[in-house]
Every structure is written in C-alpha cells, then in structure tokens.
Specification:
The structure is a single chain. This protein has 16 helices and nine strands. With 451 residues, the chain is of the alpha+beta class. The chain folds into two domains: 227 residues, MetI-like fold, CATH 1.10.3720; 129 residues, no CATH class. Strands 2-3-9-6-7 form a five-stranded antiparallel β-sheet, with no helix packed on it. Strands 1-4-5-8 form a four-stranded mixed β-sheet, with no helix packed on it. The longest helix has 41 residues. 28% of the residues are buried.
C-alpha cells in the first residue's frame, strides 16, 4: 500500500521534446542577454535619433509650433537645397562609376605586375588617412598660389615651359614721360622718324629683380642713329642711391633686356624686335616717314597663376578627385578578391579558343565579376550620399554653397548659421529615404550570395 502511494506521488518522467524546448528557451534567453546591450546602444544611437528627426521635421525652427509638411515644401523651394540635391546627384552618378571602373582596371592590371602586394598596399594606404586629414592635404594641394599648391605649381611650370612668362609684370611708364598707355595695356610713343633715337624709360622694377645679363643703358643711349634706322633704348628710369634725372638715361641706370618693341605705321606693325642686354633696340631699312614705337602688353602681363581648382566651376570635380584618391584602393581590393576567385579554366579556355586579352576581359572577366561590381558600386553609392567631411573642409567659404551636398546642407541649415533644425531634420529624412533603397538592395545581394 505504501509503495503504491509513493509511486503515484512521484513526478512523471520528462520527455525528450520537453528537454529540447527548455534548452531552446534557455538559449534564447542567453542570446537576448548578450544581444540586449548592443540593441540598447543601437536604439539610443540610431533608432531614437531617426524617430526624433522624423518628428522634429514637422515643427518650425523653434520646435514649438507644428507646421506639418511646410519644411518639406520649403526644402524643394530653397535654391541652396536644390543646388545640394544637384551636387549630390553629380556625386552619385560620377564618383561610384569612376571608382568601380578604376578599381576594376587596377585589379586586373595588378595581376600582371611582379610587386602586386606592394602596389595594392600603396593604393590602399589612403584608406588609413582620416577624411579630415585628407581634406586638409587636398585643400593645400588645390591652393591657387603656385608657391603653396602642388597642382598649380606643376601647371604653371608646364605653362611657362611652353609659353614663357613676362619678365616685367610690375613695370610701368612714368606719367608725362612720352609713353601713353593703351586700353589693352600696351605703351606707345609719339611719332618718330628714321635717323632718330628714342629713349623709353620704365619704372616699377626692383633693381634686385633685373635679369642677370642686364647691362648699363648709357653707352647705347648715346649712340647716333643712321639715316634709315630708328633706334633707342628701354631702360629702368631709376638710379639706385638717388640722383639722376627723370626721363634721361643716367650712367648708373640699367637697360631692360628682353622687351619686345614694335614699329607701327598707319595702325599696322611694320617691324618688331627685342631689346638687347643693355636695353638697346634698332629698326633698320625703314622708309622715310613717321613711326610710333609700341611696347606690347605681353611685356607686362602678370605671371600665369594656374587653375582655380576651388573656384565655383571646378570645386565639385576637385573634391570628387580627392574622394577617388581615398577610395580607389578599397574598390581595387574588393574587386581583386572577386577576381582571385574566378574559375581560371574559363579564362584559359577562352584564350585557347583564340580570344585576345581585351576580349577575355570584356566577355569573360567582367560578366563573371558582375555580382562583385554591383556590390562595390552600391556600397559606394551609399557612402557617397553621406559624404560630408571632404566637402566641408576642402571647399572655401565663398564657394561652400557651390559645393554643398545634402549632408553639408543639413548641417549648415541646422547648426552652421541657419539655426532651423526643423528644415535640417527634413533634409536628414530626405537623405535617409534616398539611402534606404540602396541599403535594401545591398542586403538582398548579400543574402542571395549566402544562399
């Protein structure tokens, strides 16, 4: 009797299904415990700001009055925002396409070089540089002053090598000394006839800036002209240490070599020459009559300063160039990884069938790399839509509006002087809506590749 009662009071045996159910429940609890801090951080740093921005976008600048969709309507009527949308479109269309193409070309070419690893390392190194540092580097590289900006220094060197430059950009004539300045910047004398000498005095040139081969002008100034020649001297009408007489060649005054001089008659240039080391020039074999001597404006042209890389017309392409420098290594490495996994037998079979390298690249390599190229392109599109640092740092203040994109416009409207966080939140929501489709596409591509 007692044994029977004890047997009835004991709990029923636990089945395998119950044990599995309890194990799964315990596993879920442990997983949630591990994931909860990350979810909490994600909610605080991502979900809450997104929801707050969406709500804030329906209020005015002060945040106290509900305005509905007015911020979204104003956003598309603001010229600065329209320009930001246009620039963002340029970024999305140009930068990812160029980066993907460069990455593909470099990844294919790197396979052909001996030091492939070192080459990849060099191209990938800019990824280790922060956008702030890269922006400062390119701000200096794009500087318009050739003494600071390396790009303009190179451009000016090439320009001067082919076209030359004026030796006397600061030279000018004294008022009332026989030289009249024209509208084009040239200087012209009164009428003179063969058999006479004309002295052309200029000022505005520092004695230390004279060419090394310059010689005193006085010996040339006292020479007599032949009956059929018109001669003279171009000189610096300034005596170091004082003294001398204005408008006359002093014994201590230097000639100006390399000055182009033209003889003009009836509005037409009949002869031209260049002044010698002592500043002298001569026109021989002239017909009798009156001539005017002209110093063309090219003698006094300011030096070529290069290209205004950060001007309104080129600031966006210049910043995109800096972005390419940073991200080309990223695209090359990812595409190179995809290239390394391609079936070599397909490439070799195409070569054995008589295909050249260009045909193999176009008809075999690129199609097989299609999934990798798509992932790289979409990833870069997402990244480009959020670009902020380079635009804000590289673009100077006067052209900031010409280079602005949605991210910088959002910051400028909210905190950079606009103080309208309602409109800034609307811009943030617009940026989020533009990024979401690309993110969804990328996630689907990743899931498809995992299957």
């Amino acid at each position: 009797m007692t044994a029977t009662l004890l047997k009835e009071a004991s709990p029923p045996p636990v089945g395998m299904a119950d044990r599995r159910r309890r194990a799964r429940r315990r596993g879920r609890i442990i997983a949630i415990a591990f994931v909860f801090p990350a979810l909490l951080l994600l909610g605080a740093l991502v979900v809450y700001p997104v929801l707050f921005s969406v709500g804030r976008s329906f209020f005015d600048a002060s945040g106290t009055r509900f305005v509905g969709g007015d911020n979204y309507s104003a956003m598309f009527h603001d010229p600065a925002t329209i320009k930001a949308i246009r620039n963002t479109t340029i970024w999305v269309v140009v930068a990812p396409a160029l980066l993907t193409a460069l990455g593909l070309i470099l990844a294919v070419l790197v396979e052909k070089v001996r030091w492939a690893t070192a080459f990849k390392l060099l191209l990938f190194m800019p990824m280790a540089v922060s956008f702030l540092a890269a922006g400062i580097i390119f701000r200096l590289a794009y500087d318009e002053d050739p003494d600071k900006g390396v790009l303009n220094a190179a451009v000016v060197s090439v320009h001067d090598a082919f076209k030359g430059t004026s030796s006397y950009p600061t030279a000018r004539a004294r008022d009332g000394q026989g030289l009249t300045k024209g509208a084009d910047g040239s200087y012209r004398t009164a009428a003179a006839s063969p058999g006479h000498a004309v002295d052309l005095g200029l000022v505005g040139v520092l004695a230390d800036d004279l060419p090394g081969d310059a010689r005193p002008a006085y010996p040339a100034a006292v020479r007599k002209a032949a009956p059929d020649e018109l001669r003279g001297v171009v000189y610096l009408d300034f005596t170091r240490g004082g003294g001398g007489e204005q408008g006359k060649v002093d014994k201590k005054e230097s000639g100006l070599p390399g000055i182009e001089v033209e003889a003009v008659r009836d509005g037409r240039t009949v002869a031209s020459t260049t002044s010698a080391a002592d500043g002298s020039f001569r026109f021989g074999g002239l017909d009798s009559g009156s001539y005017a001597l002209r110093l063309p404006a090219s003698n006094f042209a300011p030096p070529y300063d290069g290209i205004s890389w950060l001007g309104p017309a080129l600031v966006t392409p210049a910043i995109i160039g800096a972005y390419l420098w940073i991200w080309t290594g990223f695209a090359m490495v990812l595409i190179g990884a995809g290239l390394a996994s391609l079936p070599r037998d397909a490439l070799e079979a195409a070569r054995m069938d008589g295909a050249n390298e260009w045909q193999v690249f176009r008809r075999i390599t690129v199609p097989l790399l299609g999934p990798v190229l798509t992932v790289v392109f979409v990833t870069l599109v997402i990244n480009v839509m959020k670009v902020f640092d380079l635009v804000y740092i590289i673009a100077p203040g006067p052209v900031q509006e010409d280079a602005t994109v949605l991210a910088t416009q959002m910051w400028l409207v909210s905190f950079g002087g606009g103080n309208d966080q309602g409109l800034g939140s609307a811009l943030g929501v617009l940026l989020l809506l533009l990024v979401i489709p690309a993110m969804v596409f990328n996630v689907r591509r990743f899931r498809g590749s995992q299957r």
